[in-house]
Amino acid sequence: GAGVSQSPSNKVTEKGKDVELRCDPISGHTALYWYRQSLGQGLEFLIYFQGNSAPDKSGLPSDRFSAERTGGSVSTLTIQRTQQEDSAVYLCASSLAWRLIQETQYFGPGTRLLVL
Amino acid sequence: GESVGLHLPTLSVQEGDNSIINCAYSNSASDYFIWYKQESGKGPQFIIDIRSNMDKRQGQRVTVLLNKTVKHLSLQIAATQPGDSAVYFCAESYYNQGGKLIFGQGTELSVKP
């Protein structure tokens, strides 16, 4: 049984470069979430997808951050012109379709991003 | 610039004892609560959840208690084992927020053999 997978598991990049982080949700899960976890801190919501649309982008820290989801499955989080403060673990979670009640979110292992 | 990490609250227990991890949540409108366990270098792992129409829910060796009056959530782990050592996060959400979770700071549980 495949869980949520993310790639790459680790990414080191230079300040100013663009990075793409990928998330493969659990098969059949139509809701997908991106969170960020800075060193020693809790998780911070970034963006949420229901199908291919993103009803809530309120957590994206700046316009350098964007995300898309195609085919109702794989999602890509893109960070343009990376800065050192972008260094964090980026976590993806998926759940069954959100209706009137919350469904459990299952997390992937994360992508550890280090901006030098 | 210098980055400063937060010092997580830490709970240290003896193997075999019961553990209680507490969490205060912020939004009285929250109607769903969940506990996650995070081991070093891994993503959060679902432990147990509870909806606001309940005040207690039990799983295998774990119990979650919800007190909406004081906006307090707790996780009880029975017969704590070394494998329970991890950081535990509580999270809340409410239905008109699209399911996004608001996470607490986390508590580090350390189990002494």
How would you describe what is shown here?
The complex is a heterodimer of chains A (116) and B (113). Chain A is mainly β. Chain A has strands at residues 5-7, 10-13, 19-24, 31-37, 43-50, 53-56, 65-69, 75-79, 88-95, 106-107, 111-115. Chain A is 0% helix and 49% strand. In chain A, strands 2, 4, 5, 6, 9, 10 and 11 form a seven-stranded mixed β-sheet that branches. Chain A is globular and about 40 Å long. In chain B, the strands form two sheets. In chain B, strands 1, 3, 4, 8, 9 and 10 form a six-stranded mixed β-sheet that branches. Chain B has a four-stranded antiparallel β-sheet with strand order 2-7-6-5, with no helix packed on it. In chain B, a hairpin with a 6-residue loop joins strand 3 (32-38) and strand 4 (45-51). The model of chain B is unreliable at 1-5 (pLDDT under 50). Chain B starts with 9 loop residues before the first strand and ends with a strand. By secondary structure, chain B is mainly beta. Chain A binds chain B through residues 4, 31, 33, 35, 39-45, 48, 50, 55-56, 59, 91, 95, 98, 100-110, and chain B through 3, 5-8, 31-32, 34, 36, 42-46, 49, 51, 89, 91, 93, 95, 97-106.
Short account of what is shown:
Chain A is mainly β. Chain A is built from no helices and 11 strands.
What features would you highlight for this structure?
heterodimer, A: 116 residues, mainly beta, B: 113 residues, six-stranded mixed β-sheet, four-stranded antiparallel β-sheet, 10 strands, disordered N terminus
Can you write the helix and strand succession of chain A as a string?
Answer: EEEEEEEEEEE
The proportion of residues forming helix of chain A, as a percent range, comes to under 10%
Average residue pLDDT of chain B: 90
Q: Helical proportion of chain B?
A: under 10%
Instruction: Report mean pLDDT of chain A, rounded to a whole number.
Output: 92
Largest sheet of chain B: 6 strands, mixed
**Residue share in β-strands of chain B:** over 45%
Query: What is the radius of gyration of chain B computed over CA atoms, rounded to a whole number of angstroms?
Result: 14 Å
In terms of per-residue confidence, which ranges of chain B show pLDDT below 50 for 5 or more consecutive residues? 1-5
* SS-based class of chain A: mainly beta
Quaternary structure classification: heterodimer
Largest interface, Cβ cutoff 8 Å: A-B, 30 and 30 residues
Number of strands of chain A: 11
